[in-house]
Amino acid sequence: MADLWLKLSLVLITIHTTLGVGLPYEFAHHRYEDLQRIIAETHSVCPDISRVYNIGRSVQGRNLTVIEFSDNPGTHEPGEPEVKYVANMHGNEVTGREMLLLFMQYLCNSFKSVWRVKRLIKSTRIHILASMNPDGYEIAARKGPGNVWNNGRENVQGIDLNRNFPALNTIAYKSEQHGGPTDHIPIPNNYWKGNVAPETEAVIRWIKQYPFVISANLHDGALLANYPYDQSKGGSQRGVYARSPDDAVFRQIAATYANAHRTMSLPNSGCEGHSDFGSQGGITNGAAWYSVAGGMQDFNYLHTNCFEITLELSCDKFPPAGVLPTEWRNNRKALLAYIEQAHKGIKGFVLDRNLDPIVGATIHVDGINHDVTTAKDGDYWRLLVPNTYTVTASYNGSTRTKQVTVSTIRARTLNFIMDV
Ligand SMILES: *[C@@H]1O[C@H](CO)[C@@H](O)[C@H](O)[C@H]1NC(C)=O
Ligand SMILES: *[C@@H]1O[C@H](CO)[C@@H](O)[C@H](O)[C@H]1NC(C)=O
Ligand SMILES: [Zn+2]
């Protein structure tokens, strides 16, 4: 019977594809098997621009499955930025999970017909993890929509995954007091002696494996785009803005999502019981809302080159499936616009005098105490808001400095040839 269904659905997919209709969008909640099915179907309809891989397993053995989109899936193309979306880290927050399933189908369906999607996939490697907490989701899904507030939020060990990452903020805050670095802060050894969930560990490995430039972590329970720092500086729990060195960039990328979303940046669009984030453009500094230690977004920023924000997509954490078409209309353009931000600021290569790539060279921007480093091909990406900057590349005692003016259009290319 299962075989018959499989064959039947493959026939249907084939018909859809030959007619140029593409994958049928399913506005429904998808349990684990259905999520896996959508990912597999998407890949089978678009094998030339996608790849499916697992980054690890949940406590109960469910795969943490990623689908990647690129015009050369499976390889890093020198100079091209990589981006990621992660949803459903809190198992009971499900809108993001469904948005990412729709988004992968949309990328596949639109590659040939929508110029903007084609350009994006040709210039960017996009990784999508629709569920970081598949075990928690199953607990929440058994209750269904209207799920009691926190059922299935944590993984099955009772760990809140968005409090489980290495909390590097205290180290960074101490360091910045005496002008020390606030980037590439190592994970303290004692972190691994604590309770690290397998889901968290898999994502940490993933974050370190790819040269991600920008990402978003999709949650529910409010409507806003939340940017670093999440952890307050003075130990206060609530209401104190914790500015990062890249505050201007974070405000720009968060506002990009909020403004491209159909309601997030409108006054009075917020959720009952929360402040009206719409009246401040739909964005907030994390700690200004409430302080979180061990969150994923601060970890990305303090340990790697990736700039991550946290999106809260709907007031209802597990809404009825009937709202999904509206939610898709609300989020579709924002999901595209946000990834396009990976192409802002400056980018380029750092090479040695033989024009071979230098891995691990440092790119420093005057006035911003947060350096990025070059990846395996000597390539780097440095998000910046429009302005004129002095940029220095350094490697093993050798430095090169250049001036650059960044505009609102695509990233300026700034290459450095070092005397090494
Ligand atoms: C996880 O993925 C592997 C490799 O694709 C597959 O063999 C296995 O059946 C999957 N497990 C589950 C629980 O889906
Ligand atoms: C760094 O510079 C030193 C001194 O010039 C040199 O001996 C060493 O080989 C260089 N290391 C690398 C990795 O280039
Ligand atoms: Zn959440």
TrEMBL record:
Residues 1-20 form the signal peptide. Keywords: Cytoplasmic vesicle, Glycoprotein, Hydrolase, Membrane, Metal-binding, Metalloprotease, Protease, Secreted, Signal, Zinc. The active site is at residue 312. It catalyses: Release of C-terminal arginine or lysine residues from polypeptides. SUPFAM superfamilies: Carboxypeptidase regulatory domain-like, Zn-dependent exopeptidases. Its main location: membrane. This is Carboxypeptidase E. The lineage of its organism: Eukaryota, Metazoa, Chordata, Cephalochordata, Leptocardii.
